[in-house]
Amino acid sequence: MISSGASWSGAAVPGDRQEVAAANLRRLDDLARELSRTREINQEQQETIRTLSTPIIQVWEGVLMMPVLGAVDLRRAEQMMQALLGAVARTQCRAVIIDLTGVESIDAALGGLLLSLVRAVELLGARGIIVGIRPEVARGLLADGVDISRVATLSRLRDALVLCMGQAPARPALRSSVR
């Protein structure tokens, strides 16, 4: 039993209410700032993840490659489109290889987006080539009625690289200074 003169540790007496309220408001302000910083960090990390999930590699002069790994949703597909078209315009490449080796399944919507991506690349003057279509992806595309007959497809990345090497523009011959 507690005597009337005893106080609870941490309990506020009526005169301390303003101090407690002020301390609580300061703590809430601190928490709000911390939450804001956490959100900023989260947004930066999400942007980094989006950038890393859509790598575009210049395999050599005039040839870009975009490996696609994992699941692709609408947001990622739009980001792939933006990043790839920006890279094609910036580098003025002659060929783009889209490697689907890391994709386990494609639905009709994603198949349509890939076709749009290849068409957009071609509108910028580069050739679009899709490689690495797995058997289950091919079956899924056919079952969903996605027509990729107008797109260059090869089974292996190596085959696409050989094709691109064969289409490389001839370099001017060096003139000999010896006469």
Count of helix runs: 5
Question: Count the strands?
Answer: 5
Low-confidence stretches: 1-8, 172-179
The Cα radius of gyration reads 29 Å
Order of helices and strands: HEEHEHEHEH
Helix content: 40-55%
- Backbone structural class: alpha/beta
Q: Which shape, going by the Cα principal axes?
A: elongated
Going across the major beta sheet, what is the strand order? 1-2-3-4-5
Distance between the termini: 115 Å
Mean pLDDT: 84
Q: What this model shows, in words?
A:
The protein has 179 residues and is an alpha/beta fold. The protein is built from 5 helices and 5 strands, in the order αββαβαβαβα. The protein has helices spanning 17-52, 74-91, 108-123, 135-143, 157-166, and strands spanning 57-60, 63-69, 95-102, 127-131, 152-154. The chain has a 5-stranded mixed beta sheet with strand order 1-2-3-4-5, with helices on both faces. Strand 2, helix 2 (74-91) and strand 3 (95-102) form a beta-alpha-beta unit. The radius of gyration is 29 Å and the shape is elongated. The N and C termini lie far apart (115 Å). Mean pLDDT is 84; it is low at 1-8 and 172-179.
